[in-house]
């Protein structure tokens, strides 16, 4: 594997997980966000998670120190100037991503890969903001990035096949099972298929057909799913799921993807799922209890 230095933009749950994964595999990585408090909190979260592995006997203190030493945090995008591989993991907004990639192209070396971890934004649309769209590729990790085996790799219309292969090779090096899509498609494979199912679960809840607990229980016991759909939306992030279904509905006009207004109300109220400790479930309680959403 020839990637020596990685750069992750966005120190949220996904970004910090990707940075940790790279560091665990021996890659020097810079984790960047606009707010210094966010990057400090993310680094503390990474170290806390690693320490739990020490407590379980799965890692040594020295290994934790080595991993932590390979992660540098910053608030400056200019730190990407000598990175081999850039992964963007910011908000699901194509206009913001376009501005970021346009700036990244000017900062980075010409042969650096510009990858986006987007769930549903168009790779080609993001790439249209740069002068060389050949180096832009989709590399979608699944939450939690350190644990989940799947990485979906998606080319845009102009993506160079060599960039796709370099991205696939990195995913394998990181211990993942990559799936490379044959062409660009909004939300790829897993997220597109899941979006309709998760959306339907929210509609069933909103229509009063079942409670949060009953809907999740029904799908776990009746469909043999390891996690109920509402639990999964909380893990993904209610804001992220809402943005994805909005994009799918806008692009396809398919009612399966029409987001329920309940999602908008929850986002406005700050109920974003696990990351805010409240979503369909209240995570301040142990074990988590269903929230009252009326």
Topology:
Layout: E1 5-9, H1 13-24, E2 28-32, H2 36-55, H3 61-69, E3 71-74, E4 85-88, H4 94-107, E5 113-116, H5 123-127, E6 136-141, E7 150-155, H6 161-173, E8 177-180, H7 190-206, H8 212-222, H9 229-236, H10 238-252, H11 261-268, E9 281-282, E10 289-290
Parallel strand pairs: 1-2, 1-4, 2-3, 4-5, 5-6, 7-8
Antiparallel strand pairs: 6-7, 9-10
Helix pairs in contact: 1-2, 7-9, 7-10
User: Biggest sheet, open or closed, and with what strands and sense?
Assistant: 8 strands, mixed
Terminal Cα separation, in Å? 52 Å
The portion of residues forming beta strands comes to 5-15%
**Residue runs with pLDDT of under 50 for 5 or more positions:** none
Task: Find the CATH topology of the largest domain.
Answer: Rossmann fold
The average pLDDT score comes to: 96
Please report the total strand number as a whole number.
Answer: 10
Looking at the overall shape, the CATH architecture of the largest domain is 3-Layer(aba) Sandwich
- The strands making up the biggest β-sheet line up spatially as 3-2-1-4-5-6-7-8
Q: So how many helices?
A: 11
Number of domains: 2
Proportion of helical residues: 40-55%
CATH superfamily of the largest domain: NAD(P)-binding Rossmann-like Domain
């Amino acid at each position: 594997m020839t990637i020596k230095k990685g750069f992750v933009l966005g120190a949220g749950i996904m970004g910090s997980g990707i940075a940790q994964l790279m560091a665990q595999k021996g890659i020097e990585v810079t984790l960047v966000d606009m707010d210094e408090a966010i990057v400090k909190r993310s680094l503390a979260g990474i170290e806390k998670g690693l320490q739990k592995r020490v407590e379980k006997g799965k890692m040594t203190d020295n290994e934790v120190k080595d991993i932590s030493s390979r992660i540098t945090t910053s608030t400056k995008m200019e730190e990407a100037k000598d990175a081999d591989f850039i992964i963007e993991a910011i908000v699901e907004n194509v206009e913001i991503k376009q501005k970021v990639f346009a700036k990244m192209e000017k900062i980075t070396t010409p042969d650096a890969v510009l990858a986006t971890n987007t769930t549903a934004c168009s790779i080609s649309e993001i790439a249209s903001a740069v002068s060389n769209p050949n180096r832009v590729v989709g590399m979608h990790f699944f939450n939690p990035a350190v644990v989940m085996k799947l990485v979906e790799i998606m080319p845009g219309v102009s993506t160079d096949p060599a960039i796709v292969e370099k991205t696939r090779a990195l995913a394998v090096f990181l211990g993942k099972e990559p799936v490379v899509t044959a062409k660009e498609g909004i939300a790829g494979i897993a997220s597109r298929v899941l979006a309709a199912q998760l959306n339907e679960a929210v509609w069933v809840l909103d229509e009063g057909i079942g409670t949060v607990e009953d809907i999740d229980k029904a799908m776990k016991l009746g469909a043999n799913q390891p996690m109920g759909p509402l639990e999964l939306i909380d893990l993904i992030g209610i804001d992220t799921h809402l943005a994805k279904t909005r994009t799918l509905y806008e692009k396809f006009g398919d009612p399966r993807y029409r987001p329920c207004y309940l999602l908008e109300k929850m986002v406005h109220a700050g109920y974003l799922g696990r990351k805010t400790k409240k979503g369909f479930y209240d995570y301040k309680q142990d074990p988590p209890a269903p929230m009252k959403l009326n």
